[in-house]
Amino acid sequence: AQTVTQSQPEMSVQEAETVTLSCTYDTSESNYYLFWYKQPPSRQMILVIRQEAYKQQNATENRFSVNFQKAAKSFSLKISDSQLGDTAMYFCAFMKLSGGGSNYKLTFGKGTLLTVNP
Amino acid sequence: NAGVMQNPRHLVRRRGQEARLRCSPMKGHSHVYWYRQLPEEGLKFMVYLQKENIIDESGMPKERFSAEFPKEGPSILRIQQVVRGDSAAYFCASSPRGLVVHEQYFGPGTRLTVT
Questions:
Q1: Which of A5, A16, A107, B22 could serve as a FRET partner for A24 with CA atoms 20 to 30 Å apart?
Q2: Which residue of chain A comes nearest to B58, CA vs CA?
Q3: Facing residues of A80 across strands?
């Protein structure tokens, strides 16, 4: 079974600064996806960024980028130029893709509460 | 294109009652997933359904919980004889058929409170 670990329960950052959220995972699979989801106070789950394991290039979406280290099984999220609206719980998630329709479920970490201070 | 719809958004049930949670996937999506989020926890997978078919229910408690996704209408997560430990937020996600099933779009969740 896969596990996802987020070792930082809470973090804070000043507006306009950069922050990095950590995530490690454990799997024996070679073909999988990794995700970061954001859950603001509204509790809506919003996809922030996605990384395919077979791609060496780190994914980037505007101010959000990842540092994907496959050998180390590490998948950190960097938020640049932090904004007040980035305040939310951030969840790292894993999905394996090997064979069969049952492999599309997401396994989530426990989350990191990020607070952006003015 | 409307997003994933869930209703009700909030549901209060007394112990022993039944809870029915509904999920309407995005238009064109034929895959539905249910997740449960306990307080201070991440989301935990419960069940994966396609139309009229349960694909993976490995995360569902063996008793009192059931799910369906009929040919017509929303997907239903049913909890019989609710207990306080069932209090949680229940999220539904949907994805399209084909090769992009990894893209799951989440609904706003139903917060179930058992008194």
A1: A16
A2: A102
A3: none
Note the pLDDT of residue A99: 60
Query: Could you tell me the two tokens for A57?
Result: 């290039």
What is the C-alpha to C-alpha distance for residues A67 and A57, in angstroms, rounded to an integer? 9
Which residue on chain A is closest to B53 by alpha carbon? A101
- SS3 category, A112: strand
User: Quick check: A43 contacting B, CB < 8 Å?
Assistant: yes
Residues of A in contact with B58 (CB under 8 A): 102
The SS3 of residue A49 is strand
Give, for all 115 residues of chain B, the pLDDT tens digit: 578 999 999 999 999 999 999 999 998 888 999 999 998 888 999 999 998 999 899 999 999 999 999 999 999 999 999 999 999 999 999 988 765 556 789 999 999 999 9
Q: What is the CA radius of gyration of chain A?
A: 14
Q: Which residues contact A92 (CB under 8 A, 6 or more apart)?
A: A4, A6, A21, A23, A25, A34, A35, A36, A75, A77, A108, A109
Residues 54-83, chain A: which have Cβ within 8 Å of B? none
Min CA distance, B60 vs chain A (Å)?
13
A20 forms bridges with which residues in the sheet? Answer: A78
At A23, list the tokens: 């995530």
Q: Chain B contacts of A102, Cβ < 8 Å?
A: 48, 55-56, 58
Q: Give the pLDDT confidence score for residue B83 in this predicted structure.
A: 97
